Amino acid sequence: MKSAITAYASVLETFNAPLQLREYALPVDMEVGATLVRTEMAGICGTDVHLWKGELPIQLPVVLGHETVGCIERLGQGVTHDWTGQELSLGDRVTWNSTVSCGHCFYCAEKRQPTRCPERRAYGIGYRSDLAPHFLGGYARYHYLHPRTTLFRLPEDLPTESVIGAGCALITALHGVERICGDTVSPDAGRVAGVPVLPELWRNVVVVQGAGPVGISALAVARAAGARKIIVIGGPKPRLELARRFGADEVIDIGEIADPKDRIAAVLELSGGHGADVVLECAGVPSAVPEAVQLCRDGAKLLILGHYCDAGEVSLNPHWITKKQLQIYGSWSSEPRHLRTAIEFLRAHRAEFPFESMVTHRFTLEQANEALETTARWESAKSVIVP
């Protein structure tokens, strides 16, 4: 009879309270189609901070962490290749989509929007850790991956820090830009590492609200997709300096220009008096949305990308949407193809967009609370846990 081996995980048991280090038994037997990985690195996402604060209703207890890279420890029966067809073996370094959709419901099968699947669940968010197999988030020494999880074997020339530095932000940005651009590709362009050079961005003025991971990723995608001028609005200064490194033409510091009216005036001046052709809201702050409407030129596109968690309501006058003839889009999470594109993008643009440099603060599993607090205080570009 096999004896259970135990390992540690850092567990959120109460909102707005310190995470607790708990010891759980690793699964003795693997489900058909399941995988067990040894966690190499887990990213601290801004969403983790919101979850910690109770700003998204989830069941507790939970092992947080949905941005993870690990090495294959065990393969369940039938797990032979990753999502792209590459063969998998023990010890391979892999990452994966943090969500699993059912594949056959109204949204999965008919509308082809699996991110809206009512059965969709996310690692680090939607699984209770007090129920076996327990290890269903990145803040742990091991991570169990259910059948149908989309695995990606990582190329040797792509550092783990690049993958975690980009985190879920890059795939979120790729999905969002895809939604506002549709399938139309500039005839004189083509694709750069899977990212189409699109008329909506090609030679246009793009404003990115927010200089956190999602904002930096949206900036990189817009730059690769052919934007003429990119203006980033955000703070603090270290994040704006990072935005400059990633190709921002202009930055507006919300600490120095605190009045939205003054920020709107600055964007108008920088865009020839018209406003932005595309505004990418990546701040996650409700007041950024009505400001974004005023940053748009007439006929512009606005993508609201930063509001995964419910940060509250805000007053918005719909007259301006009508008068400006705006096209407004929302985008939720991502699909497997976006992770494949992200891996290609990171390899092709490693020098241009140094996502690995985003990893500025490293913590042990026992320091998970410090990692969350550092992220919440905006003291790091990217905090990570290295179990």
Tell me the β content: 15-25%
Q: Distance between termini?
A: 29 Å
List the uncertain runs: 183-190
Overall shape = globular
Mean pLDDT across residues = 92
Supply the helix-strand structural class: alpha/beta
Main beta-sheet annotation:
7 strands, mixed
The tally of strands reads 19
Topology:
Layout: E1 6-11, E2 20-25, E3 35-43, H1 46-52, E4 68-75, E5 93-96, E6 99-100, H2 106-110, E7 121-122, E8 142-145, E9 151-153, H3 160-181, E10 191-192, E11 195-196, E12 205-209, H4 213-224, E13 229-234, H5 237-245, E14 250-253, H6 260-270, E15 276-281, H7 288-295, E16 296-304, H8 319-323, E17 327-330, H9 336-348, E18 359-363, H10 368-376, E19 382-385
Parallel strand pairs: 12-13, 12-15, 13-14, 15-16, 16-17, 18-19
Antiparallel strand pairs: 1-2, 3-4, 3-8, 3-19, 4-5, 5-9, 6-7, 10-11
Explain how this protein is built:
This protein is α/β, with parallel strands linked by helices and 387 residues long. The protein is built from ten helices and 19 strands. Strands 3, 4, 5, 8, 9, 18 and 19 form a seven-stranded mixed sheet that branches. The protein has a six-stranded parallel sheet with strand order 14-13-12-15-16-17, with helices on both faces.
Notable traits:
single chain, 387 residues, alpha/beta, 7-stranded mixed sheet
Short description:
The strands form five sheets. Strands 3, 4, 5, 8, 9, 18 and 19 form a seven-stranded mixed sheet that branches. A six-stranded parallel sheet has the order 14-13-12-15-16-17, sandwiched between helices. Strands 1-2 form a two-stranded antiparallel sheet.
